[in-house]
Amino acid sequence: MKKIAISACLLGEKCRYDATDNKNEILLEQLKDAQLIPFCPEDFAFGSPRPTMDLLETEEGSKAISNLNGEDLSTPIIQYATLFFQRHSELDLFIGKDRSPSCGVCSARVYDEEKNLLSSKEAGLMAKEAKKRNIPCIDAEDFKGLV
Ligand code: SF4
After folding, report:
1. Would you say 78 and 125 are in contact if contact means Cβ atoms under 8 Å apart?
2. CA 59 to ligand 1 centroid distance, Å
3. Is the pLDDT score of 17 beyond 80?
4. pTM for this structure?
5. Rounded Cα gap, residues 45 and 76, in angstroms
């Protein structure tokens, strides 16, 4: 059975910034024969609901910056990802919620420090940690089924 790490909001957990979910019934049907291991770095670190954040390109790379007060929220997200991947070392796939600054795989937006859009094809902070570990990664909107 394939072991798949997946953004918890896609499974129906109300862990988005506004305490709603992104439940995706079609995706869940496609994954019914897999072992799903949900994750949500933002809910773990900041709870739900919570202020939104954006990825900003800085001299030290991409950072998750709070839209409420400009605080750098990157460290707790990366710490959560590090622990998650230590605990779940034999993953066949990572499915991230597209466009999320934490979970998006090839779809996160990155801005410069004046909030000009630089790219909308980047990896969010947790997806980046998955890629670093050579785990196959895909955005939920690009998933076409298990092969
Ligand atoms: S996209 Fe990722 S961080 Fe955002 S609610 Fe879903 S699991 Fe949590």
Report:
1. yes
2. 26
3. yes
4. 0.96
5. 6
